[in-house]
Specification:
- The protein has helices spanning 33-40, 45-58, 60-77, 82-131, 134-139, 142-184, 189-208, 211-233, 235-240, 244-296, 304-345, 406-414, 436-439, 457-461, 471-480, 484-487, 507-520, 537-550, 563-566, 586-592, 595-600, and strands at 3-5, 358-361, 366-373, 383-390, 395-400, 421-426, 429-430, 443-446, 525-529, 555-559, 571-576, 579-584.
- With 606 residues, it is an alpha/beta fold.
- It has a six-stranded mixed sheet, with helices on both faces.
- Strand 6 (421-426) and strand 7 form a beta hairpin.
- The longest helix has 53 residues, at 244-296.
- It is elongated and about 120 Å long.
Amino acid sequence: MIIIRKRTSLSMQNPESTPRSSPLDHHYSGEHPLRTLAYLFRPDRRRLLLAVVVFAVKHIPVWMLPLITANIIDVVVDHRPVSHLWYNTGAVVLVLVLNFPLHLLYARLMSASIRRMGRELRSALCRRMQYLSIGYHARVSAGVLQTKVVRDVESVETMTQQSADMGLGAIMTLLGGLAVIGFRTPVVLPVFLVVVPLAALLVRQLRSRIRSSNEEFRLEVERLSSRVGEMTTLIPITRAHGLERTALHRVDNTLERVLTAGFRLDVLNGRFGSLSWILLNTMAVGCLSGSALVAYYGWWGLSAGDVVMISTFFTALTASLTTLMNLTPIISKGLESVRSVGEVLQAPDLESNEGKTLVERVEGRIDFQGTGFRYPDATEHSVHGFDLSVLPGETVALVGASGAGKSTILNLLIGFIRPTEGRILLDGTDMASLDLRTYRRFLSVVPQESILFEGTIRENVTYGLEGGADEKALREALLAAHAMEFIERLPDGLDTVVGQRGARLSGGQKQRLAIARALIRDPRVLVLDEATSALDSRSEGLIQDALSHLVQGRTVFVVAHRLSTIRNADRIIVMDRGRIVEVGSHHELLARGGEYATTLQPRRSG
């Protein structure tokens, strides 16, 4: 019997079985990345506004210094009162001293907002990945998803940080400079509004000429990365066949292309950098000479200080416009990363559990009724017309040639995929109406290769258990799995770190920990997927004995190729092309002389 209850409110949900809702999920469907970016920073809008105000105040010295310089020069040239000199000097010293605390405040405000956004974005991605279907994860590689979580979010953070620091600085310089010019020498403001953008565009045009060379160099570096990765992967084969020189020759050719492309890029950078510098400074000299000529003849009422101020502002404003234009590729890359992140956050391929019935207890009866499944874009069903009733506590083994549909049945049972035809009943209830996350609390899987994470043995075995497990239950599970035998020999016992993916343990040791992990959860439904196929005879013997403890009183589904693993199953299901062709015990199927007896009988262990 299965005990179920309807979900009525969020407060009734088990925190482990219910995904934390993400306010970001619905904000990535077809929106422009700038709107998405604005939504990401919405919680920090007041902090960001304060950061902009603080930046504007701290940036005052940049556009105020040319004005102060002009005033001081005029004091000297026109023999104005010396007190004017001290007023101007005091003003500039004050704003310079204030820059330090204001810059620290700005950095704290801006960094807190950007880092919070990055954390929330990565959290939203990780939550989404946890609830995307197994089919989605089969189509999209783990490396691609990892890149989105790490590199794409980093690109978004970099874009916002550089846009804030460089972009705000350039904008404040432009606004402050133009305001000062408009106030002090309004007659030259139209000249600045034409000449400064023109100078910036010319500099930008020169620099854009090296874009193709940058692209060529990047591609060569990517080829080198690929070649080095290939070389390291093939080192065992290279060593075994004495091909070290061949491998090095392949890498050397790529290194030579990187050298050539890099040298060409450096020369072009130097050439265009020098041309840009000459152009910009020539125009600055022209601006200086022109304004000096105007002042010399007394036109427009320009003073000597105005000449210096105009020349200084010309260089500063041109550099600011150039900076803004140079931010374009950085912003484009960041917005593309927002789109890339959105591919995950708006992916519709979710395992749908919301609003479905919660599973409180499982007896273990499983009924497949006309169950079928066809993968997207497949021409044939992987499973078709599958009818099977499994009683609580019964052990069922699935055998058949590769592609017979065994793994598909296990994935349907676990709920990784949903039937495209027919249905599956759990204790008489259609699994399509159940919250499968709560059902899986009563299910354990022992796969062919046990997956362990970088942590201690204790952490791996008790992974996911609320409040962990008491020492007695942990040791009992490890003893039943024959794992204490090797754990007691380890220097730190249960607190020994197993390494990434359990690298410090043998295959048999990892598999015994997987069985202990299943035992400690006391599952009602157990899935053994080739749990002993990769083990030597001694390890298999220990695993078989551990499995005998594990299967007692549980509904068990076994996929295996070794006779010792399935011969004691209550029933053996022989499959071919997604259908059941034979059903019976090991001895019954041998006596029948059918496909199991002639072609599919699993090999004996050892």
